[in-house]
Amino acid sequence: MVNLALVLVLALSLSPCVVSGQRASSWHRPNDKSLSSTDLDAYHCGRECKQNFLKGIQTDRAGFGDFSFDADFCRTADSFTESSEPGDVLKVQSYINDTTSWNLPGGATLYRVQYVSVGLDTKKVPATAFVILPFAKRPDNEPFPIVAYAHGTIGTFYGCAPSSSYNLYDYDTWRPLYLAGYAVVATDYAGLGNNYASHHYLASTLAAGDIYYSVIAAKKAFGSILGNKWASTGHSQGGGAVWALVESEYVTSSAPRSQEHALEFVGGVSISPAPRFADIVKTFAQQNQTTTLCAYAPFSYQRCAQSIFYLIT
């Protein structure tokens, strides 16, 4: 079986975006603060714990830059209620030609959107996303075609949202899509950014809904600027989400949702997906092997134990 001690060591060596995964009452990221060795003593953090935590802080700062977590935007909108409809727009914030704060392609127009998605047991949950619009207009002012991008693993803590990273967690992923002239709609996934609900890591069925409703919300927010045709692509965790999306009723031709919103889904590209995480863990256990990915297993199980169906389908 998998060496549990090794899994726990790997988990502790990951960035605070993973190990700080509990729902917090105060809105901040660990990497937003200059925590000293003395500060960590209050948490009964020993020598090895301190080394791993401070190393994780450095990793997070490399990924998020000097950005502080935007609590005002990510806080659940007052207009959100349990009767809100999936795809409803709760907040929109624009960053037009803001290249001083963000590392964006030249001329890019950035928006952040808070919208309504669906969580466990079909409960409504807020989620956040970013939308990037190209600089140049299309011929005859045609609307921009949409590509919904689903990001790979970044963490399970609400402060780990890609939309709160200085480069929107780009590792040559969404940027080539923007440069090709597509409007990019990229969900953070519910539980990353907004902390109304925990992030259900690798629950691809739920993430598929986050992708779909981010497109619905973007279409509502930007209207005729965006076209009705859209595709989706994702990597790793996002690859599994896109895989689930393509198999889901959200985008099948007979789905009432597709007809209701008059959107035409043309296809999805799943890159290095993890669509069956339970099978991955089982395979490594049978082969008496482990991997850094297995360090996420306790968090994935903890978040999905209420409805394990979402983890294995």
From TrEMBL:
MF terms in GO: triacylglycerol lipase activity
Matches recorded under Gene3D superfamilies: alpha/beta hydrolase
Domain of life: Eukaryota
InterPro entries named in the record: AB_hydrolase_fold, Lipase_secreted
UniProt keyword Membrane, yes or no: no
Leader sequence segment: 1-21
Classification via SUPFAM superfamilies: alpha/beta-Hydrolases (SSF53474)
GO biological process: lipid catabolic process
Alphabetic keyword roster: Signal
Protein name from the UniProt record: Uncharacterized protein
Origin organism lineage: Eukaryota, Fungi, Dikarya, Ascomycota, Pezizomycotina
